[in-house]
Design goal:
The complex is a heterodimer of chains A (407) and B (283). Chain A has nine helices and 22 strands. Chain A is of the alpha+beta class and 407 residues long. Chain A has two domains: 241 residues, 3-Layer(aba) Sandwich (Rossmann fold); 127 residues, Coagulation Factor XIII, Chain A, domain 1 (Distorted Sandwich), CATH 2.70.50.60. Chain A is globular and about 85 Å long. In chain A, 39% of the residues are buried. Chain B is mainly alpha-helical and 283 residues long. Chain B is 68% helix and 1% strand. The longest helix of chain B is centred in the middle third of the chain and has 27 residues. Chain B starts with 9 loop residues before the first strand and ends with a helix. The chains are: A alpha+beta (407), B mainly alpha (283).
């Protein structure tokens, strides 16, 4: 397939907001203090952002809160005027910003849906014709006469999303559609994304969900404080995203209160590695991964126990192991000696954030702790699917009819 | 499957503006917003239309009582009650259109912050909604006029340019106020006071010819609102009452209120057009 033409070109877009330090809201204040200069702080939301998106491409925009994602989307949608640079778009644009298009809470869903379809570029007749498809896709037929102020936020999002995809836009700008809405509707959105992509429409999706990025996006872009940090493969953008979120290394700020022991041993550093031995903050599910701790002996010890546990965000232990169960002695260590402690494993954990707690204890029960640092290193396991369990054990699933079963 | 050929070429996405480039879309949006707003008022409460009509009628009732029974200003004026009611209906249009325009942009924040559309649609739709209300109110007044024994005349047709002029005036002021209000919230109370002044500064309560000082008559008639109210009285209620041209002291003087009208509209559009690109950020 030849390289398709770009559908969206963002060329050197910058946008700054001027925030008055002390907001002068009234003429009276101005009249009373005519000489006081209004002090402004300029907040640079976007700095020289350039990228392009090809026709039919599914492009993810990720970044932390306040990194400029939504501002960028609003500049592209023509809601904000850019300070410099320009945005070029081929065809009609449809937007889904801040949980949907504008709604009037006192009007029924039907009127709002039609109003929004018109707002997004349909003619009145087209909007009325498509109303049935909109309300059916949203699954809100029985609530169509209900005033919107009585809608739940999930229902609002469903309605807004349905309007957005029914207006035949060539380019869709979508901000955080999947944050609200139940699992069934999310699945519907995913199916719709696939359909839109098959139809050759261009989709730009702002999201925090790296699973969605990995699953749908052809490419992704990471924004950080208004700057483009990276544009590229969804996987590498996702792991870069986790690094900006959780910081590289992670061991440095180990909290003192999480630190316990008799002081005869210290753990100098701890981190996760991917299969290639690179220090990472995110590893993809199904790949090889390792936990590494650097253990510093202050006093000499003979045959200590090295142990490690991996806890979830919910403080469940997903996995734990130690040298206690090994037949061999771990050896004798002199004062001042520094050794590495490595746990390599196949990463079958469910997507999510995990925290590693390494410890070193006296031989025996393992309860007499030399050092233990709770949640010393963190890792995010990425993956598009999760069955809902703590681990996704490699498995096969098949359906067998009873007669087949007999063999 | 190949991508659609009709998707079109890359075009610059222009930022928000007052007018936008598509008159058809502009009109569709204005009309849609106006009708929805009208329906909200109409069906918002059980007696929606009843209150819409009762407000000016109650004001009329109070003023009529005060100025015929207590103060007796209207005693010597022919068809005073009809004149008073007509003036109130015109003034109500002006007050409603401009008063609603003031906060119209923040009121539609959810649209302004989320969709790309020509911003001038907002104040225009407010004026359009007011027209829809006005049609109903005006019908009620005309029943009153006929009941008072005033016979239809050809000059009644003047009502159309007069109502149009009232709409243009309200739109000009409304866009100006809407744009200013986004930055300066005290436009609201200032305009409330200005509306009070414009009520007493127009020949609604009193007949213009009853003012003893002729210069004061001319001064009052410099207001475009006063011209419209006075001319409506002359054309519909009482051909014996001075026309706007007579009341201001000669037709050439009408250039002053006309000039004010044009100036206000130009200023309103200019200010709104300048602030339109940044209106979404300032909310």
């Amino acid at each position: 397939m030849p390289d398709p033409a770009p559908a969206v070109v963002v060329d050197g877009v910058s946008k700054a907001f001027s925030l008055p330090k002390e907001r002068v809201h009234t003429l009276k204040e101005r009249a009373l203090h005519p000489l006081r200069r209004r002090e402004h702080e300029t907040f640079s939301a976007l700095t020289d952002v350039s990228f392009d998106v090809k026709r039919g491409e599914f492009f993810g925009i990720v970044g932390r809160n306040g990194s400029g994602k939504s501002t960028l989307l609003k500049c592209m949608a023509g809601i904000y005027k850019t300070d410099s640079g320009q945005v070029l778009v081929a065809g009609r644009v449809s937007t889904f910003i801040e949980l949907g298009v504008g709604f009037n809470p006192d009007l029924a869903a039907r009127d709002n849906a039609i109003l929004n379809a018109i707002m997004l570029g349909l003619t009145r007749r087209e909007a009325i014709e498509r109303y049935d498809r909109i309300i059916d896709f949203a699954g809100l037929r029985e609530f169509e006469e209900l005033k919107l102020k009585n809608y739940s936020s999930g229902m609002l999002v469903r309605l807004a999303f349905s309007v957005m995809i029914q207006v035949d836009a060539d380019v869709l700008l979508i901000d955080e559609v999947l944050a609200v809405g139940d699992a069934a509707f999310q699945q519907k959105c995913y199916d719709e994304f696939n359909r839109l992509r098959d139809e050759g429409r261009t989709i730009l999706l702002v999201t925090h969900d790296m699973g969605t990025v990995a699953r749908f996006c052809d490419r992704a872009m990471l924004l950080e404080q208004g700057n483009v940090m990276q544009i590229g493969e969804p996987d590498s953008v996702a792991s870069e995203y986790f690094e900006t979120n959780f910081g590289r290394g992670g061991a440095a700020e180990a909290d003192l209160k999480h630190h316990q022991g008799d002081g005869s041993v210290e753990i100098a550093d701890a981190w996760f590695e991917d299969g290639g031995g690179n220090r990472v903050n995110a590893v993809a599910q199904g790949r090889r991964a390792a936990f590494v701790a650097v253990v510093q002996f202050i006093e000499a010890h003979d045959d200590p126990v090295f142990a490690f546990s991996l806890g979830t965000d919910g403080h469940n232990i997903a996995f734990a192991t130690s040298t206690l169960w090994q037949e061999e002695h771990t050896g004798s260590f002199a004062a001042g000696e520094r050794v590495g402690f490595r746990v390599s494993f196949d990463n079958y954990f469910a997507p999510g954030r995990y925290h590693a707690t390494p410890w070193v204890a006296r031989r025996g029960s393992g309860q007499d702790v030399h050092v233990r640092v709770k949640d010393m290193a963190s890792v995010v396991i990425t993956g598009a699917r999760s069955g809902g369990g703590l681990v996704d054990v490699p498995h096969k699933l098949r359906i067998e009819r009873t007669e087949v079963h007999a063999t | 499957m190949s991508a659609e050929a009709s998707v079109g070429e890359l075009r610059p996405m222009r930022g928000p503006s007052a007018l936008g480039g598509d008159p058809r879309r502009f009109w569709t949006l204005t009309w849609t917003l106006a009708v929805l707003e009208f329906r909200l008022k109409f069906f918002g409460s059980i007696l929606g239309y009843f209150w819409q009509l009762m407000r000016p009628l109650l004001l009329f009732g109070v003023l009529y009582f005060v100025f015929t029974e207590l103060v007796r200003i209207g005693g010597g004026v022919k068809n005073y009650p009809v004149m008073l009611l007509m003036g109130i209906i015109f003034y109500t249009f002006f007050a409603e259109a401009t008063g609603t325009s003031v906060g119209s942009v923040p009121d539609r924040e959810s649209l302004v912050r989320k969709v790309h559309f020509p911003r001038l649609v907002i104040p225009l739709s407010v004026v359009l909604t007011t027209y829809l209300n006005f049609v109903l109110n005006f019908a009620a007044v005309m029943i009153f006029v006929l009941a008072s024994g005033i016979a239809p005349r050809v000059s009644w047709l003047e009502i159309f340019p007069l109502i149009l002029g009232l709409g243009v005036l309200s739109t000009g002021i409304g866009t100006l106020l809407a744009a200013l209000f986004v930055r300066y919230r005290d436009v609201q109370p200032i305009w409330d006071v200005a509306l009070q002044i414009s009520f007493y500064g127009s020949p609604i309560l009193y007949a213009i010819e009853t003012i003893p000082d002729e210069r004061l008559q001319h001064l009052i008639m410099c207001s475009p609102l006063a011209v419209i109210v006075q001319q409506a009285r002359h054309a519909i209620i009482d051909p014996g009452a001075p026309s706007a041209a007579e009341a201001i002291g000669g037709a050439p003087w009408l250039l002053i209120p006309f000039g004010i009208l044009v100036f206000v509209c130009a200023l309103g559009f200019y200010v709104f057009d300048r602030s339109a690109p940044h209106i979404a950020e300032e909310l």
